Amino acid sequence: MRLIDESAIKNIAIGASFFGAGGGGNPYYGMLQAVAAVRQYGPVKLLDVSEIDPAAWYSPVAGMGAPAVGLEKFARGDEYQRVFDAVAQYTGHHFAGTFPIEAGGGNSLVPLTLAATMNLPLVDADSMGRAFPELQMSTLALAGVTTTPMAITDVQGNTSIINTVTGKWAERLARAETVEMGGTATVSLYACTGAQLRDHGVTGIVTACELVGSRIRDAHRDPEAALTEILDITHGYELFTGKIIDVERRTEKGFNVGEIKIDGYDDYEGHKLSVMIQNENLIAIRDGQPITMTPDLIEILDAETLEPVTTEVIKYGKRVRVLGTPADAKWRTPAGIACVGPRYFHFDYDYVPLEQLIKEAK
């Protein structure tokens, strides 16, 4: 057990945005809320999965919707406890703590704010190891943990419980409610036991976010050394260096969807990279050939500061470095690929691991 203070929150916010692969919500607002909560209520206890009661119950909270909408319409903060308490009341479980549903800029900080407000521990695990756009895309779901019952609420206080036969149905119904709620909502789902979270979650993710975030915050001292450290920590690869020449981005059915086009410079002069997005960066095409594809992660970073650039704020003219890092092993299974592989998102490619694509491109 250790305590998460303001400095740790700032590192987690940046690192979570890195692992969010372009999605998971903007980290800045989430960071402000978490810092304010810790200042008011004190630091948050972070528990390793080895320290939690395997028979106790835990539940995450998260934001849902199009990240671009969330830039102008963000949560007040009382929504987090509202959905958390709603699931507890519906299920009859007393929740011993909370955890992030994903590693995403905003969504890694929502449960931290809740934990501070309610004096609950935060578990060092999530259910994705990155961010994904749909609710059923969870390592807990792959292991048979039910997506619902889930609670959903908005800033007005409208709240409902969704109980569905599959996770995909939960996604469809909750997405429709989110659209009606103005494009963003707050949800709580995937209530699970400590044993289920320990065995089927992506463990150590909060610590990983904090570690990568600290390297990025210090990158101004020596960007090249920081990049080398980040790639070593994440077992990643540099994919591209270039300038954004076009961003096609639209809000469609509660998602940000579109394409980011990048012209190369330095070692990539004369080359082109396109990144297809649905909230997150899903597939990177370099000179007409895929170089990284979901579930592996594509991170777009500011070329000078190495700070992650999320899909809702990336703009024409920005100079960036693009990295690829391998997804958690749970996603690189037949069930994982069926759930979040390129064909699920209607890309006409069979999944090929990042390492193999890099080798073939050389």
From TrEMBL:
Which segments constitute the S-Me-THD-like C-terminal domain? 167-354
One matching Pfam family is S-Me-THD_N
Name the SUPFAM superfamilies for this protein.
CV3147-like (SSF160991)
Q: Which Gene3D superfamilies match?
A: CV3147-like (2.40.390.10), CV3147-like domain (3.40.1610.10)
- Residue ranges that the Swiss-Prot or TrEMBL entry lists as coiled coil: none
- Domain S-Me-THD N-terminal stretches: 8-163
Q: Name the source's superkingdom.
A: Bacteria
Name of the featured protein: DUF917 domain-containing protein
- Origin organism is Lacticaseibacillus nasuensis JCM 17158
